[in-house]
Amino acid sequence: MAIQDTFIDPAGFSPPGKIRPTQWLVSLRSIEEVEIAAKYPIDILDLKEPQHGPLAPASAELWLAAAQSVASLGERAPKLSAALGEPDEARTVSGDLPTRFDFAKAGPSGCDSAAKLVQMWDDVRDRLPATTELVAVAYADHGAANSLAPESVFELAKQAGLGRCLIDTYSKNGKSTLDHLCPERLSAIHKLASQLRLWWALAGSIRIGDVDWLGQQNVRPDCIGVRGDICTEDRTSPLCETRMSLWSNRLAKN
Ligand SMILES: O=C[C@H](O)COP(=O)(O)O
User: Fold this and answer.
1) Quick check: is 116 catalytic?
2) Is 203 in the pocket of ligand 1 (CB under 6 A)?
Protein backbone atom coordinates (compact mmCIF):
# COMPACT_ATOMS: atom_id res chain seq x y z
CA MET A 1 0.00 0.00 0.00
CA ALA A 2 1.67 3.24 -1.07
CA ILE A 3 0.59 6.65 0.06
CA GLN A 4 0.53 8.97 -2.92
CA ASP A 5 -1.23 12.02 -1.55
CA THR A 6 0.16 14.84 0.52
CA PHE A 7 0.24 13.86 4.18
CA ILE A 8 1.95 14.80 7.37
CA ASP A 9 4.96 12.61 8.07
CA PRO A 10 6.51 12.27 11.52
CA ALA A 11 8.85 15.16 10.79
CA GLY A 12 6.20 17.43 9.28
CA PHE A 13 4.43 17.62 5.93
CA SER A 14 5.57 15.44 3.03
CA PRO A 15 6.14 17.20 -0.27
CA PRO A 16 3.29 16.76 -2.77
CA GLY A 17 3.40 13.46 -4.64
CA LYS A 18 5.85 11.84 -2.25
CA ILE A 19 5.31 8.11 -1.87
CA ARG A 20 6.07 6.62 1.49
CA PRO A 21 5.28 3.36 3.26
CA THR A 22 2.47 2.74 5.69
CA GLN A 23 3.74 3.02 9.23
CA TRP A 24 3.29 0.26 11.78
CA LEU A 25 2.17 0.78 15.37
CA VAL A 26 2.26 -2.13 17.83
CA SER A 27 0.70 -2.08 21.30
CA LEU A 28 2.83 -3.54 24.10
CA ARG A 29 2.22 -4.29 27.77
CA SER A 30 5.57 -5.18 29.39
CA ILE A 31 9.26 -4.36 29.16
CA GLU A 32 9.88 -7.87 27.82
CA GLU A 33 7.49 -7.09 24.95
CA VAL A 34 9.24 -3.75 24.32
CA GLU A 35 12.54 -5.62 24.02
CA ILE A 36 11.07 -8.17 21.59
CA ALA A 37 9.43 -5.42 19.53
CA ALA A 38 12.71 -3.52 19.23
CA LYS A 39 13.97 -6.34 16.94
CA TYR A 40 11.31 -5.50 14.33
CA PRO A 41 10.95 -2.45 12.04
CA ILE A 42 8.12 -0.96 14.07
CA ASP A 43 7.59 2.78 13.69
CA ILE A 44 5.65 3.37 16.91
CA LEU A 45 5.80 1.35 20.14
CA ASP A 46 2.51 1.98 21.93
CA LEU A 47 2.32 1.21 25.65
CA LYS A 48 -1.04 0.06 26.95
CA GLU A 49 -2.61 -2.57 29.22
CA PRO A 50 -5.07 -4.55 27.05
CA GLN A 51 -6.57 -6.36 30.04
CA HIS A 52 -8.11 -3.15 31.39
CA GLY A 53 -9.83 -1.73 28.32
CA PRO A 54 -9.28 -0.50 24.77
CA LEU A 55 -6.92 2.33 25.73
CA ALA A 56 -5.98 1.53 29.31
CA PRO A 57 -2.64 2.97 30.42
CA ALA A 58 0.40 0.90 31.32
CA SER A 59 1.97 1.62 34.72
CA ALA A 60 4.18 4.68 35.24
CA GLU A 61 7.03 2.23 36.01
CA LEU A 62 6.64 0.60 32.60
CA TRP A 63 6.52 4.03 30.91
CA LEU A 64 9.85 4.87 32.51
CA ALA A 65 11.45 1.51 31.69
CA ALA A 66 10.28 1.74 28.06
CA ALA A 67 11.64 5.29 27.75
CA GLN A 68 15.04 4.10 29.02
CA SER A 69 15.04 1.02 26.81
CA VAL A 70 14.19 3.00 23.66
CA ALA A 71 16.73 5.71 24.48
CA SER A 72 19.45 3.04 24.51
CA LEU A 73 18.69 2.24 20.83
CA GLY A 74 20.07 5.57 19.68
CA GLU A 75 19.29 6.57 16.08
CA ARG A 76 17.27 3.45 15.29
CA ALA A 77 14.87 4.10 18.18
CA PRO A 78 11.20 3.88 17.25
CA LYS A 79 8.73 6.53 18.39
CA LEU A 80 7.00 5.94 21.71
CA SER A 81 3.29 6.32 22.32
CA ALA A 82 1.18 5.91 25.46
CA ALA A 83 -2.48 5.13 25.87
CA LEU A 84 -3.81 7.24 28.73
CA GLY A 85 -7.23 5.66 29.29
CA GLU A 86 -10.62 7.28 28.99
CA PRO A 87 -11.16 10.98 29.91
CA ASP A 88 -11.04 10.91 33.73
CA GLU A 89 -8.08 8.56 33.89
CA ALA A 90 -6.30 10.43 31.09
CA ARG A 91 -6.57 13.68 33.06
CA THR A 92 -5.13 11.90 36.12
CA VAL A 93 -2.19 10.05 34.56
CA SER A 94 -1.05 12.39 31.78
CA GLY A 95 1.18 14.43 34.10
CA ASP A 96 3.28 11.31 34.87
CA LEU A 97 4.26 10.59 31.27
CA PRO A 98 8.05 10.75 30.73
CA THR A 99 9.17 13.43 28.29
CA ARG A 100 10.67 10.74 26.00
CA PHE A 101 7.17 9.86 24.75
CA ASP A 102 6.42 11.26 21.30
CA PHE A 103 2.67 10.61 21.34
CA ALA A 104 -0.18 10.10 23.78
CA LYS A 105 -3.79 9.18 23.11
CA ALA A 106 -6.84 9.54 25.31
CA GLY A 107 -10.10 7.65 24.78
CA PRO A 108 -13.11 9.90 24.05
CA SER A 109 -15.81 7.79 25.73
CA GLY A 110 -18.57 9.91 27.25
CA CYS A 111 -17.53 12.96 25.19
CA ASP A 112 -20.81 13.17 23.31
CA SER A 113 -20.47 16.82 22.27
CA ALA A 114 -17.80 18.90 20.58
CA ALA A 115 -17.45 21.02 23.73
CA LYS A 116 -16.79 18.00 25.97
CA LEU A 117 -14.28 16.47 23.56
CA VAL A 118 -12.31 19.68 23.03
CA GLN A 119 -12.30 20.37 26.78
CA MET A 120 -10.91 16.89 27.42
CA TRP A 121 -8.17 17.41 24.82
CA ASP A 122 -7.31 20.80 26.38
CA ASP A 123 -7.15 19.32 29.90
CA VAL A 124 -4.90 16.46 28.81
CA ARG A 125 -2.64 18.65 26.67
CA ASP A 126 -2.16 21.02 29.61
CA ARG A 127 -0.78 18.14 31.69
CA LEU A 128 1.35 16.31 29.09
CA PRO A 129 5.05 17.08 28.62
CA ALA A 130 5.42 19.93 26.10
CA THR A 131 7.18 17.61 23.64
CA THR A 132 4.46 14.93 23.64
CA GLU A 133 1.88 15.23 20.86
CA LEU A 134 -1.71 14.35 21.74
CA VAL A 135 -3.37 12.09 19.15
CA ALA A 136 -7.15 12.37 18.77
CA VAL A 137 -8.94 9.02 19.09
CA ALA A 138 -12.21 8.18 17.36
CA TYR A 139 -14.04 4.98 18.11
CA ALA A 140 -15.47 3.08 15.14
CA ASP A 141 -18.25 1.84 17.46
CA HIS A 142 -18.76 5.34 18.85
CA GLY A 143 -22.38 4.63 19.87
CA ALA A 144 -21.15 2.05 22.40
CA ALA A 145 -18.68 4.63 23.76
CA ASN A 146 -21.17 7.50 23.81
CA SER A 147 -18.73 9.52 21.75
CA LEU A 148 -18.70 11.34 18.41
CA ALA A 149 -18.43 9.76 14.95
CA PRO A 150 -14.93 9.60 13.42
CA GLU A 151 -15.70 12.29 10.82
CA SER A 152 -16.63 14.76 13.59
CA VAL A 153 -13.56 13.84 15.63
CA PHE A 154 -11.30 14.45 12.61
CA GLU A 155 -12.91 17.87 11.91
CA LEU A 156 -12.65 18.89 15.56
CA ALA A 157 -9.07 17.66 15.83
CA LYS A 158 -8.12 19.92 12.95
CA GLN A 159 -9.89 22.90 14.52
CA ALA A 160 -8.22 22.20 17.88
CA GLY A 161 -4.76 22.11 16.31
CA LEU A 162 -4.19 18.35 16.60
CA GLY A 163 -2.33 16.86 13.64
CA ARG A 164 -3.04 13.16 14.14
CA CYS A 165 -6.09 10.94 14.59
CA LEU A 166 -6.45 7.25 15.33
CA ILE A 167 -9.54 5.12 14.76
CA ASP A 168 -9.90 2.16 17.13
CA THR A 169 -12.74 0.07 18.56
CA TYR A 170 -14.13 0.72 22.05
CA SER A 171 -15.52 -2.79 22.45
CA LYS A 172 -12.89 -5.47 22.07
CA ASN A 173 -15.36 -8.24 21.28
CA GLY A 174 -13.94 -9.60 18.03
CA LYS A 175 -15.70 -7.04 15.82
CA SER A 176 -13.18 -4.95 13.95
CA THR A 177 -13.23 -1.35 12.76
CA LEU A 178 -13.90 -2.84 9.31
CA ASP A 179 -17.10 -4.43 10.67
CA HIS A 180 -18.30 -1.07 12.02
CA LEU A 181 -17.30 1.21 9.13
CA CYS A 182 -18.08 0.18 5.55
CA PRO A 183 -15.42 0.60 2.81
CA GLU A 184 -17.16 3.66 1.31
CA ARG A 185 -17.12 5.37 4.69
CA LEU A 186 -13.49 4.47 5.38
CA SER A 187 -12.53 5.73 1.95
CA ALA A 188 -14.39 9.01 2.63
CA ILE A 189 -12.59 9.29 5.99
CA HIS A 190 -9.29 8.80 4.19
CA LYS A 191 -10.19 11.61 1.78
CA LEU A 192 -11.26 13.83 4.66
CA ALA A 193 -7.93 13.26 6.45
CA SER A 194 -6.12 14.10 3.25
CA GLN A 195 -8.11 17.32 2.75
CA LEU A 196 -7.51 18.34 6.36
CA ARG A 197 -3.84 17.35 6.11
CA LEU A 198 -4.22 15.05 9.08
CA TRP A 199 -2.04 11.98 9.65
CA TRP A 200 -4.35 9.10 10.51
CA ALA A 201 -3.95 5.60 11.89
CA LEU A 202 -6.32 2.67 11.56
CA ALA A 203 -6.61 0.16 14.40
CA GLY A 204 -9.29 -2.02 15.97
CA SER A 205 -8.84 -5.80 15.50
CA ILE A 206 -7.13 -5.31 12.13
CA ARG A 207 -5.84 -8.60 10.69
CA ILE A 208 -2.91 -9.02 8.32
CA GLY A 209 -5.27 -10.15 5.56
CA ASP A 210 -7.06 -6.79 5.80
CA VAL A 211 -4.02 -4.89 4.50
CA ASP A 212 -4.53 -5.91 0.85
CA TRP A 213 -8.29 -5.40 1.12
CA LEU A 214 -7.84 -1.85 2.43
CA GLY A 215 -5.66 -0.90 -0.53
CA GLN A 216 -8.24 -2.34 -2.93
CA GLN A 217 -10.89 -0.15 -1.26
CA ASN A 218 -8.76 2.99 -1.58
CA VAL A 219 -8.37 3.21 2.18
CA ARG A 220 -4.78 4.25 2.76
CA PRO A 221 -4.09 5.15 6.37
CA ASP A 222 -0.71 6.62 7.23
CA CYS A 223 -0.31 3.97 9.89
CA ILE A 224 -1.86 0.64 10.91
CA GLY A 225 -2.06 -0.22 14.63
CA VAL A 226 -2.23 -3.80 15.89
CA ARG A 227 -2.27 -5.83 19.05
CA GLY A 228 -4.54 -8.88 18.80
CA ASP A 229 -3.18 -10.06 15.44
CA ILE A 230 0.43 -10.19 16.65
CA CYS A 231 -0.45 -12.23 19.78
CA THR A 232 -0.48 -15.99 20.25
CA GLU A 233 -4.21 -16.01 21.09
CA ASP A 234 -6.27 -12.97 22.07
CA ARG A 235 -4.92 -9.44 22.61
CA THR A 236 -4.04 -10.15 26.26
CA SER A 237 -1.85 -13.17 25.39
CA PRO A 238 1.92 -13.05 24.70
CA LEU A 239 3.41 -11.67 21.49
CA CYS A 240 3.82 -14.18 18.66
CA GLU A 241 7.09 -13.54 16.83
CA THR A 242 5.96 -15.58 13.82
CA ARG A 243 3.02 -13.20 13.36
CA MET A 244 5.23 -10.17 13.95
CA SER A 245 7.53 -11.38 11.15
CA LEU A 246 4.53 -11.85 8.85
CA TRP A 247 3.33 -8.30 9.56
CA SER A 248 6.79 -6.88 9.17
CA ASN A 249 7.26 -8.61 5.78
CA ARG A 250 3.80 -7.54 4.61
CA LEU A 251 4.28 -3.87 5.48
CA ALA A 252 7.78 -3.86 3.98
CA LYS A 253 6.12 -4.50 0.59
CA ASN A 254 4.12 -1.26 0.78
O1 LIG B 1 -3.75 1.01 19.12
C2 LIG B 1 -3.88 -0.12 18.62
C3 LIG B 1 -4.59 -1.17 19.36
O4 LIG B 1 -3.88 -1.59 20.47
C5 LIG B 1 -5.07 -2.26 18.50
O6 LIG B 1 -5.47 -3.36 19.27
P7 LIG B 1 -6.26 -4.56 18.58
O8 LIG B 1 -5.55 -4.88 17.29
O9 LIG B 1 -6.18 -5.70 19.54
O10 LIG B 1 -7.65 -4.06 18.39
Assistant:
1) no
2) yes
